[in-house]
């Protein structure tokens, strides 16, 4: 049940696929050299493996518990969070002026993966805090930024996102929480929020809630929602803590997984209204919340990769050890470790290939985000931003859907032992199941991909990416390596399948919206399958080129790319068939 | 959280697809008319819905508990089991001479589905008892049959299968439990058995364990294993219970799902050896155990359909009720029940289509089993037996794999509520996860399908079934109904894909065993996808023909067949690509 971060693969992706050298050439990121990246990743790997990973399974057995409004987190979480904070991890990618280290998100991504692989429940607290920092950084007033961001970066305080209400899940238009102006620039917030991750806990001195609510006479729907900062404890001018605010944790949920992460129901305003501060403009709360959500959506995609890798490592260790049955090829008269059996190899190979492909896709997206943020060239910023925005729903949707499949395969590799909770494999299967739901379900991601990311620009970004896929196809064609030609045919078919799907969506969205949105999830899965496969093809080419540096590593990479091509890329035409048939075939719910 | 058995669909499958009229024409099954079937199914539906279904979720929260060697089952289980026994359900398909009702397995299958849909944990006890009855019926001596079968049929006693040991899971060759002949025809059994479903409980007076063990000087491997009947309480000549036998339940497992079904570790022979009776011949224990296992494998496939249907019904009810977001086609300015959203329709439609396709495939298999058992024509018996044996691993493997997908979709339909245990959707996701593991993992089923069912007869049965698929294609081609032509193309591609895979397996098994067995699971999934799709095509044709009888029912069936074609049958060529590429592509575990 240990976890060893795949630092070598991570660095390979950073350096050869995701453009770390280009990012390190950006103004402000000069320190993000490959050497720095390696040092940071190795330190992060130690913390994740030594401190967080051992707490993961015990915390599932003895999860966070609510008592009388307070939440006691799982054993060891408090001390681990202290270590996390003191080592400065929370500030890694945040600006130096606020006490952060100003490293690019591209280096932050593997560290986030490690944190989540080691302990998904624990990692949610920093994940949400990051989102709150981002939102304040972008939309908060100078006073709010000054008073609240610093203590969140040091880990003294943490942050939350308060969107969901009992009647308002995916549909934020239905939010009913209220904000009453006091007259002095502050507001009194009241209402009930549910599913608030780390909405209450004992890891930090204060909790900075970012809360969506409506002003009196605000327009109906999403155009009447404002964002407020509501601290658990009020903060004095000098930054010290004052009185308890009017927000109470009335319960936490009994969940399928991530049991150590407290999911709170928060009651605001039972005693006259919680004091809140407007973030951004009135009625424009969703703008700021979307910043937070986009950061969080990408981060949840990385959680998918993380849990997939953890499940893979767990299953791999078991398969190397468990002896059962003679090999089908007659190569031994004795029973052998099950890793030698073809179907176990298929399962582990698929788990590995999906994980590595997801990782490459996500880090490539992070590279675009850094370039979109920091490139000195305005045109380049725009271009990278468009690609990043196209890829975020795919990273979120595809990497989380695949994580459920991978975690399920991990249970299967263990046979009967996989179903016993003590083994630990079942926890990943349970934990992973939230990932396709929170921060926007797969359908929400898919609708975003269809609507805002494909239709709005007439398929321009989609086609630009497909043109890049074709360049990789040409490079595969030019390569003399036999693995390159094995990769070529499935990549070409997948690229062509995705291209057909894009055309279908553009042609039919206006006339047949139900068919197109009914095919949105298959379209997202097709895009993910193809674009992650494209990264594996790029990885293959890079490994062929650099094989001499580390033959064992690169040979494994070349084989993993083939495994992806056989087991996953081959499914792309079938997904396109679903999209293209959506207009003609009936659906019977 | 109620369950309403889909009696109408079940009867449609029995009468129009699975050959109930032919079965009712067999000697001994004269009473199995469509009217009897309907009456039995309706009564079974009442029992399942009224008595068992309400116990399912509470039993998950308060599962079976071990104390000092005894197991207390979940609240209400004892009384429900009494009702089950007194109504005669356990004996439904067993011979009249032993106190059963002698109905065909074809009528037993839907009743078994209902039982499992209502309460999977409960239903495991009758499922295992059925297996024990089958094994004794086939291999037990007249004395053992006389003494043990009757009380199992009345539900006074229950039965178990004792195969697994800590070092012997899929690999029965590694069994170490010992049987020492006493000299009077009985044996003393010692050893440890794990994962014994209902190995200890309080539902019945006695438990009849069927135990695999080795005689002294037995050959190594599977050819040295014998089967023994080891009762929990010894049975006197007059059938009354005597002393407690030397078998103890030392613990039960803490599992991911089916928590109310006690999974026991049994210790045999700590006090000198448990008294056991040989079943069948010495060293031929696997022959009898395989009878039991084949019955159980089919039954587990039905469990997959059952849990899929329960998950579907649960999600459907939620989707009809939960209001969220406006429709994408602009047909309403208000938020609507989510069942109106295209992706929710896709998910529910897929769940329904997979469930109904699995049901049809399974019941068709049961029809072959009845014909194999009771046909007066020896050639016909042989032919149906071969088809049944080909289909059993597919029913087990495919229906259980799909049940995990369906249960996972069920969670997804619920959004965040799906992750909260109180909702109930998560229980199906946890419960379903055992189905691809016990009674032989999907890989074990796939190896059986490749080795004993495809290679051994040179692909004869596979090709005979494919010829029948082509007949259905011709019927679709001949039909003027537009849905028939939509079904034709995907069915034809799937049939051709399966045909290619069969050819590949036959051509390469000897020369490339690792590649072929590494493709065994994709082959099984391809076979299931295609053959279940074939049943949906047959259903479509039948519904077109009988539409006038019940237009709403048949229109839904025709739409469901299309949904299956679009979302599942379309994936068959991709699965074939995996099989056909197995020789060329590397695998990197």
UniProtKB/TrEMBL annotation, chains A, B:
Residues of the Acyl-CoA dehydrogenase/oxidase C-terminal domain: 283-449
Keyword Transmembrane helix: no
Cofactor(s) the protein requires to work: FAD
This enzyme's EC code(s): 1.3.99.41
Classification via InterPro entries: Acyl-CoA_dh-like_C_dom, Acyl-CoA_Oxase/DH_mid-dom, Acyl-CoA_Oxase/DH_mid-dom_sf, AcylCo_DH-like_C, AcylCo_DH/oxidase_C, AcylCoA_DH/ox_N, AcylCoA_DH/ox_N_sf, AcylCoA_DH/oxidase_NM_dom_sf
Residue intervals of the Acetyl-CoA dehydrogenase-like C-terminal domain: 465-584
Occurrences of domain Acyl-CoA dehydrogenase/oxidase N-terminal (ranges): 36-156
Annotated catalysed reactions: 3-(methylsulfanyl)propanoyl-CoA + oxidized [electron-transfer flavoprotein] + H(+) = 3-(methylsulfanyl)acryloyl-CoA + reduced [electron-transfer flavoprotein]
Record has Transferase as a keyword: no
Highest taxon above the source species: Bacteria
Domain Acyl-CoA oxidase/dehydrogenase middle: 161-270
General function of this protein: Involved in the assimilation of dimethylsulphoniopropionate (DMSP), an important compound in the fixation of carbon in marine phytoplankton, by mediating the conversion of 3-(methylthio)propanoyl-CoA (MMPA-CoA) to 3-(methylthio)acryloyl-CoA (MTA-CoA).
Family stated for the protein in its record: Belongs to the acyl-CoA dehydrogenase family.
Name of the protein in question: 3-methylmercaptopropionyl-CoA dehydrogenase
Species for this entry: Achromobacter agilis
Gene it is expressed from: dmdC_3
């Amino acid at each position: 049940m240990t976890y060893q971060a795949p630092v070598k693969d991570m660095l390979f992706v950073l350096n050869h696929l995701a453009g770390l050298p280009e990012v390190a050439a950006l103004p402000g990121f000069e320190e993000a050299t490959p050497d720095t990246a390696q040092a940071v990743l190795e330190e992060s790997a130690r913390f994740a493996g030594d401190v967080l990973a051992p707490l993961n399974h015990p915390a599932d057995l003895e999860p966070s518990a609510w008592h009388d409004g307070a939440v006691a987190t799982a054993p060891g979480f408090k001390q681990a969070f202290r270590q996390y904070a003191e080592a400065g991890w929370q500030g890694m990618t945040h600006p130096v002026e606020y006490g952060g280290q100003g490293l690019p998100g591209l280096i932050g991504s593997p560290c986030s993966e490690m944190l989540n692989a080691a302990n998904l429940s624990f990692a949610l607290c920093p994940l949400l805090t990051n989102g709150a920092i981002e939102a304040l950084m972008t939309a908060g007033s100078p006073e709010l930024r000054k008073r609240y961001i610093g203590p969140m970066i040091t880990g003294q305080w943490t942050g939350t996102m308060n969107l969901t209400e009992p009647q308002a899940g995916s549909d934020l238009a239905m939010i009913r929480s209220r904000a009453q102006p006091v007259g002095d620039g502050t507001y009194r917030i009241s209402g009930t929020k549910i599913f608030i991750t780390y909405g209450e806990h004992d890891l930090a001195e204060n909790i900075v809630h970012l809360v969506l609510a409506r002003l009196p006479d605000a327009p109906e729907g999403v155009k009447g929602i404002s964002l407020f900062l509501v601290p658990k404890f009020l903060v004095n001018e000098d930054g010290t803590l004052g009185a308890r605010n009017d927000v109470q944790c009335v319960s936490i949920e009994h969940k399928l997984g991530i049991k150590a992460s407290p999911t709170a129901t928060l009651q605001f305003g039972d005693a006259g209204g919680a004091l809140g501060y407007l973030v951004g403009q009135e009625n424009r709360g969703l703008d700021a919340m979307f910043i937070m959500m986009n950061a969080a959506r990408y981060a949840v995609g990385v959680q998918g990769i993380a849990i997939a890798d953890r499940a893979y490592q767990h299953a791999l260790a078991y398969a190397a050890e468990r002896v059962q049955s003679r090999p089908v090829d007659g190569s031994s008269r004795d029973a052998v470790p099950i890793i030698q059996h073809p179907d176990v190899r298929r399962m582990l190979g698929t788990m590995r290939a999906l994980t590595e492909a997801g990782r490459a896709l996500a880090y490539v997206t992070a590279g675009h985000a850094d370039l979109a943020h920091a490139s000195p060239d305005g045109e380049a910023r725009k271009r990278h931003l468009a690609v990043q925005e196209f890829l975020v729903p795919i990273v979120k949707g595809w990497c989380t859907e695949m994580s459920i499949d991978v975690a399920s395969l991990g249970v299967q590799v263990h046979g009967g032992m996989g179903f016993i909770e003590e083994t630990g494999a079942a926890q990943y299967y349970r934990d992973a199941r939230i990932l396709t739901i929170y921060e926007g379900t797969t359908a929400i991601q898919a609708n975003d991909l269809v609507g805002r990311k494909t239709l709005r620009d007439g398929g321009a970004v989609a086609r630009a990416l497909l043109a890049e896929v074709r360049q990789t196809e040409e490079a595969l064609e030019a390569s003399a390596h036999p693995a390159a030609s094995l990769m070529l045919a499935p990549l070409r078919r997948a690229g062509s399948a995705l291209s057909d799907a894009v055309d279908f969506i553009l042609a039919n969205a206006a006339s047949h919206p139900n068919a197109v949105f009914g095919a949105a999830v298959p379209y997202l899965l097709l895009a993910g399958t193809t674009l992650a496969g494209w990264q594996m093809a790029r990885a293959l080419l890079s490994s062929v080129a650099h094989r001499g540096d580390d033959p064992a590593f690169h040979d494994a990479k070349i084989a993993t790319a083939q495994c992806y091509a056989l087991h996953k890329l081959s499914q792309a035409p079938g997904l396109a068939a679903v999209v293209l048939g959506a207009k003609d075939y009936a659906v019977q719910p």
